[in-house]
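Work Package 3 (structural annotation) set out to generate three-dimensional models for the target panel prioritized at the project kickoff. During this period the team completed the workflow that converts sequence records into discrete structure tokens, so that structures can be stored uniformly alongside our sequence database. As a representative example, we reproduce one entry of 141 residues exactly as it appears in the project archive.
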Amino acid sequence: MSEEKDYAVFILSHGRAKDIKTVKTLCNFGYTGKWFVVIDDMDKQRKLYEKKFDKDHLIIFNKKEVAKETDTGDCSDELNVGVFARNFIIDEAKRRGYKYHVQLDDDFTGFTFRYDVGNKIASKRCGNIDALFNYVIDYLK
């Protein structure tokens, strides 16, 4: 199993500075690694994010600059989609030296395993998300 983490969790957020559930959920599920909340510079709640998270946990990217490098697959000039943040995170993870990364939205309240029991779907709470992420990374390696 992975000893030293060569991955981090990046949490995409926009307009929810007061209600980012994923950080607390990660801690509740045993995550001990690096994590970052990622917002764009156009977010109207930027100041709230900056008050809530220190510079070691908050990443702010220039949305218009990332949009110049992103093909959204349509003819729209709209910037209100998550693809810009998701593409930015891929490059940012590399810049920060992470070989792997996990991207999560800001509203996770749990991590569960789903499985088939007869004709029904059952679920079981993940006991340790840190261990799960390590196993997935080891599998990728």
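Residues 67 and 79 are 8 Å apart (CA to CA).
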